[in-house]
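Trying the structure run again after the queue cleared.
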Amino acid sequence: MVFGGIKNERIQFNEDTVWQGAPHDYANTGAHEHLGEIRRLLWDGKQSEAEELAMKRFMSDPLRQKAYQAFGDLTLELLNVDESSVSGYRRDLNLDTAIASVQFEAGNTQYKREVFASFPEKAIVVRLTVTGDELLSFRASLVSARPGASVKPLGDDLVMAGKVADSAIRFEARVAVQTDGKLEHDEGSILVRSATSATLLLAGATNFINYRDVSGNPGERNARTLGLVR
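Done. Tokens:
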């Protein structure tokens, strides 16, 4: 989700294996032993008794799946933009290119952001550019939707790692930045200063391998993903 802010942008991202719970067998132990009795009750017109027995001895355990969980946000804060001076704001989603864009002018400078998600590369790409009198300076941060996650630098990248409560799922998101400006870290954020353009590469992964196995390494997956995009 690209929220389309001006000075502050929020890009909410998900990953399809961020769930509560852990690999397990839903089968109700000994369920087959009660199938004949359930059928007999149904043939005898005893619907409620059949349902009661089925719910207790035949249906899956637990009855419902665990809940899908949100991953987090990539937030961007432009450091040298006065929103009171902004004009010409335009927000666009191009269905041919799958690029969501925001552009506006502040003073004599035009700002543009473009966002797309690449399924083959398993990454979200954000491109920021400026033309005019001012150079581009902004702060990029990762915010977890799950409590207790850590955010810290890893080389030039920014890494957010944590665990889903009541779950065996561990997750990690990484942001890498390519820019012609100056790059530095500050209190769990990446700062870009004095640039004409910057490209952010966002990858997210979990330790999920399949419904029986959560022994994967999300960090290794993210490193491979960002390496491919680069």
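The first helix runs from residue 35 to 43. Worth checking whether this holds up in the mutant runs.
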